[in-house]
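Help needed: design a sequence for this.
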C-alpha cells in the first residue's frame, strides 16, 4: 500500500513535467499491474472531458476508407486530443506522421492504429470461409500470426478480426468472412485466430490486438440481406450463434466490435443486456468494445432513439466504449454528462479500458514502437510467408466432384483453359483483403504456363466477362476489367479454342465484390453470361474440369449434373495460381471439406445440417411432411463434404462403453485406412444426436473433428474423447443442462456419410 502511494506520488510529480517523461517513467516500473493501474488512473485525472471523449473516438484516415462517411478535420482532432484512435492508416511512415500529431497534443497519449487485417495483411491468405474448409486450427493460427507479424511491422496495432459470425444463409455476402455454419468448428477457429494475432503477450512487437466481431448474431439477417434485422430465440442464440464469440473472449481477445443489426428489437450497439450483462458480467470480458462503422448514428434509422444524442447515451449506457467514425460521443456526451444522462464514472471506465489496451501494446513506453521501416522491409511478403499462404490455399480447396478420376489432370495433349478466372488476378485476393495488392497475386495462367512448358500444349480464351450485368459492373467498379466485345463474340472465340483441345479447364465464378459486405445476392448461381459459356462449351462434348472462384456457397445443380469434375477454389489469396495449379496437376492432393452446406436452389435457404426433425419429418412419399413440392430437402453438397485423389475406408468403429454417467468420458475410436495409391489428408468428423430432449434437439451436431495425414495404404486408429459436459445445451429456461437418455454418435467423412452407434447417459 505504502509502495503504491509512493508510486502515485512519483507520478503526480512527473505529471507536472512532460508526458513523454511520464511514459518513460512507466517503462521503469517493476510491479506492472499496480503501476499500470496507477498510471492510467492518474492520467485520467488529468484529462479534460474532451480528451476523455477523444480516447473513445476512432476516425478513419484518408488512406483508405471502408464505409460511407469520412471526417475532414481528423488530423486537427488528433492534435487537440479529440481523437485518440485511427483506422485505415498503415505503413511505418504514415503512422509515424499521425503519431507525431498525437505527440503534439497536450497529454501526448499515443494513437492506436486499427485496420481490417482479415485474411492476411500484404501476403493474402484464402478468404476465411475458404480457410475454414481446411479444418486445421494450426493453419488458421499460423495465418493469423503471419498477418499480425506483417501488420505490426507495417505500423498497425489492432485488427478487426476474427469475424466469428455463424452464418447459414449463403445469400448474405459476408459468409465469405466467417467460418461457416457450425458453432463447434467456428469456436475452434475463433480461438486459433485470437491466439495467432495476440500471441502470448501483446507486448511482443509481432503481435496485435484482436477484435472479435460482429457482436452479435450479425450472421443471421432476415432473408440474407446485409444489415437486416435479426430476430432469434434465446436458445438458438446460446446453443448456436454465441459460442464462437465466447470462445474468442475466453481465448483472451482484447476487444469486441458491436454489430450493425438489432437483436430482438434492440440494436446491438444499444443493447445493455448483450454488452454489459452478458459480455462483461457473465463472460468476464475485460477489454474494450468498439462500435462498427457509424453504428451509433444508425440507431436513428433503426428507430430505437429519436436523435444522435439519444443514440450516444444509449450506446454508452449499454457498455460501448469506442465510437467508430460516428463522432457521436465527441459531439453529444458532454451535454449528456451535464444533464446526468450518462455518468462520468462510466466514461472514465471506458477510457480506462482503451488506455489499458495502449499500455498492453507498449505504446506508452514507445508510441513509435511499430513504426520501424527496416522491420517492415524485412517482414512483409517474405518467401516463408508466401509459402505458408500457398500451403493454406492448397488446404482450403474442396474437390466437389471427380467422375472417373478425371483429376488430377495429365500434363499432356492439348488443354484449353477457358474462363474469366484463368488470367484474372484482380479477384484472387478476395474481398476484405485490406492492404493486399492484387497485382502481386499469381494467376493460374502464369503457373500453368510454367508447369506445362515442354509438356502439354495449352491455349486460352476468356470466353466471358465475370458478368455482363451493367448495373453490377458499375456497382463493383470493374469497368476496366471488362472486355467490351459482345458475349457472343467471346463465346465463339472460346468455342474455337476448345474445339481443338482434348480437355477443357474452365475457371468460372463470382467476382470478389459479389461477396463480402453489402454484397448479398438473391441468385447465388454462376452469373448468367458465364453459364451460357459453360453450356456452349459443354455442348462440344469434351471433358470439362470446372474450377470455381466464389465467396459463398453457390447453387450448382446443372454443373453437378453435367460436368465431370468440380473443384471449389474460393478466393485463395496471393498464391492462388500456384496452389490451384498444384492441385489441378496432382502435385498436391485436395483435402478441404465444406463448412457451409451448398443448396440445390436458393429457395432452400437458410439451409444447414443441424436442423430439427419437426413433427412431420421429410418423407418424399407422404404429402403432409416437411418438404418442398419441387425439390429435395437435402443440400447438393452437405456440410463436411469434400473428396480427395485417394480414398479412405472407415472401420472398427467402437465406444469404450455404451452406458455412461455424468462426468464419464466417452471415447470413440475408428480405424481409417488410405486405400488409394496417393498420400492424403482426411478430416474425420464426430457428430451426436440427443434423441429426446426437454427442448427439441438438432438431428446432428458436430462435436469433434481431427485431420490426419495418411500415406498410401497406411492405417491409423483415431480416438476422440468427448466429455459429458459437451452434451449440454440451453433448455427453454435458459439453463445449460445435461439430460440423461439415449444418444446417437456418428463418425464419418461428412455429415451424411457416417457410421453410427448409440449410448446411454444416466444420472444428472
Ligand atoms: C464492417 C466491419 C469493419 C469496419 C471497419 C464495417 O463496415 O462491418 O467489419 O471492421 O467497417 O472497416
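Sure. Designed sequence:
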Amino acid at each position: 500500500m505504502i509502495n503504491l502511494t509512493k508510486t502515485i506520488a512519483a507520478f503526480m510529480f512527473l505529471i507536472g513535467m512532460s508526458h513523454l517523461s511520464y511514459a518513460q517513467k512507466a517503462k521503469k516500473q517493476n510491479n506492472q499491474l499496480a503501476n499500470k493501474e496507477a498510471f492510467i488512473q492518474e492520467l485520467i485525472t488529468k484529462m479534460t472531458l474532451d480528451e476523455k471523449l477523444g480516447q473513445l473516438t476512432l476516425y478513419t484516415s484518408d488512406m483508405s476508407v471502408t464505409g460511407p462517411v469520412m471526417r475532414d478535420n481528423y488530423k486537427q482532432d488528433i492534435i487537440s486530443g479529440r481523437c485518440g484512435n485511427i483506422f485505415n492508416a498503415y505503413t511505418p511512415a504514415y503512422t509515424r506522421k499521425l503519431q507525431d500529431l498525437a505527440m503534439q497534443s497536450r497529454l501526448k497519449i499515443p494513437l492506436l492504429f486499427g485496420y481490417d487485417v482479415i485474411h492476411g495483411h500484404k501476403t493474402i491468405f484464402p478468404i476465411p470461409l475458404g480457410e475454414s474448409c481446411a479444418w486445421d486450427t494450426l493453419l488458421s493460427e499460423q495465418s493469423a500470426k503471419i498477418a499480425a507479424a506483417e501488420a505490426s511491422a507495417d505500423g498497425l496495432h489492432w485488427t478487426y478480426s476474427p469475424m466469428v459470425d455463424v452464418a447459414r444463409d449463403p445469400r448474405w455476402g459476408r459468409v465469405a468472412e466467417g467460418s461457416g455454419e457450425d458453432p463447434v468448428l467456428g469456436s475452434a477457429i475463433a480461438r486459433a485466430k485470437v491466439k495467432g494475432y495476440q500471441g502470448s503477450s501483446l507486448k511482443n512487437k509481432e503481435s496485435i490486438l484482436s477484435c472479435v466481431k460482429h457482436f452479435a448474431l450479425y450472421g443471421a439477417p432476415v432473408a440474407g440481406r446485409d444489415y437486416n434485422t435479426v430476430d432469434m430465440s434465446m436458445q438458438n442464440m446460446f446453443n448456436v450463434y454465441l459460442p464462437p464469440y465466447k470462445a474468442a473472449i475466453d481465448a483472451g481477445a482484447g476487444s469486441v466490435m458491436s454489430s450493425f443489426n438489432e437483436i430482438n428489437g434492440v440494436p446491438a450497439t444499444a443493447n445493455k443486456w448483450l454488452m454489459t450483462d452478458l459480455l462483461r458480467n457473465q463472460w468476464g470480458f475485460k477489454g474494450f468494445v468498439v462500435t462498427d462503422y457509424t453504428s451509433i448514428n444508425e440507431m436513428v434509422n433503426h428507430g430505437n432513439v429519436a436523435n444522435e444524442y439519444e443514440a450516444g447515451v444509449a450506446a454508452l449506457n449499454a457498455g460501448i466504449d469506442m465510437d467508430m467514425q460516428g463522432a457521436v460521443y465527441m459531439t453529444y456526451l458532454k451535454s449528456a454528462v451535464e444533464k446526468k444522462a450518462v455518468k462520468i464514472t462510466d466514461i472514465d471506465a471506458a477510457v480506462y479500458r482503451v488506455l489499458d489496451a495502449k499500455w498492453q501494446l507498449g505504446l506508452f513506453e514507445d508510441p513509435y514502437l511499430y513504426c520501424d521501416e527496416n522491420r517492415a522491409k524485412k517482414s512483409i511478403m517474405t518467401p516463408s510467408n508466401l509459402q505458408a499462404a500457398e500451403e493454406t490455399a492448397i488446404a482450403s480447396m474442396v474437390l466437389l466432384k471427380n467422375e472417373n478420376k478425371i483429376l488430377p489432370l495429365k500434363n499432356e495433349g492439348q488443354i484449353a483453359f477457358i474462363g474469366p478466372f484463368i488470367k484474372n488476378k484482380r479477384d484472387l485476393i478476395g474481398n476484405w483483403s485490406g492492404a493486399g495488392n492484387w497485382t502481386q497475386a499469381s494467376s493460374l495462367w502464369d503457373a500453368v504456363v510454367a508447369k506445362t512448358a515442354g509438356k502439354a500444349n495449352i491455349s486460352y480464351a476468356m470466353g466471358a466477362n465475370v458478368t455482363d450485368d451493367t448495373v453490377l459492373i458499375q456497382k463493383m467498379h470493374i469497368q476496366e476489367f471488362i472486355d467490351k466485345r459482345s458475349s457472343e463474340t467471346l463465346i465463339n472465340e472460346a468455342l474455337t479454342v476448345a474445339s481443338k483441345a482434348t480437355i477443357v479447364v474452365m475457371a468460372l465464378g463470382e467476382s470478389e465484390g459479389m461477396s463480402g459486405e453489402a454484397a448479398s445476392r438473391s441468385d447465388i448461381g454462376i452469373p448468367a453470361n458465364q453459364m451460357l459459356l459453360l453450356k456452349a462449351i459443354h455442348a462440344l462434348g469434351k471433358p470439362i474440369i470446372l474450377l470455381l472462384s466464389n465467396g459463398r456457397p453457390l447453387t450448382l445443380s446443372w454443373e453437378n449434373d453435367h460436368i465431370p469434375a468440380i473443384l471449389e477454389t474460393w478466393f485463395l489469396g496471393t498464391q492462388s495460381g500456384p496452389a490451384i495449379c498444384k492441385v489441378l496437376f496432382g502435385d498436391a492432393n485436395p483435402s478441404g471439406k465444406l463448412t457451409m452446406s451448398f443448396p440445390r436452389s436458393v429457395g432452400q435457404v437458410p439451409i444447414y445440417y443441424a436442423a430439427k426433425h419437426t413433427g412431420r419429418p421429410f418423407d418424399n412419399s407422404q404429402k403432409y411432411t416437411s418438404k418442398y413440392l419441387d425439390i429435395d430437402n437435402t443440400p447438393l453438397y452437405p456440410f463436411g463434404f469434400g473428396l480427395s485423389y485417394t480414398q479412405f475406408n472407415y472401420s472398427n468403429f467402437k465406444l469404450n462403453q455404451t452406458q455412461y454417467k455424468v462426468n464419464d468420458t466417452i471415447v470413440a475410436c475408428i480405424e481409417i485406412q488410405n486405400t488409394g495409391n496417393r498420400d492424403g489428408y482426411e478430416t474425420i468428423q464426430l457428430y451426436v444426436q440427443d434423441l429426446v430432449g426437454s427442448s427439441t434437439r438438432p438431428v446432428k451436431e458436430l462435436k469433434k473433428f481431427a485431420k490426419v495425414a495418411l500415406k498410401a495404404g497406411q492405417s491409423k486408429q483415431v480416438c476422440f474423447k468427448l466429455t459429458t459436459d459437451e452434451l449440454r445445451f440451453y433448455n427453454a429456461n435458459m439453463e445449460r443442462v445435461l439430460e440423461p437418455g439415449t444418444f446417437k454418435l456418428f463418425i464419418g467423412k461428412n455429415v451424411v456419410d457416417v457410421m453410427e452407434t448409440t449410448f446411454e447417459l444416466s444420472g444428472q
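The first helix runs from residue 2 to 15.
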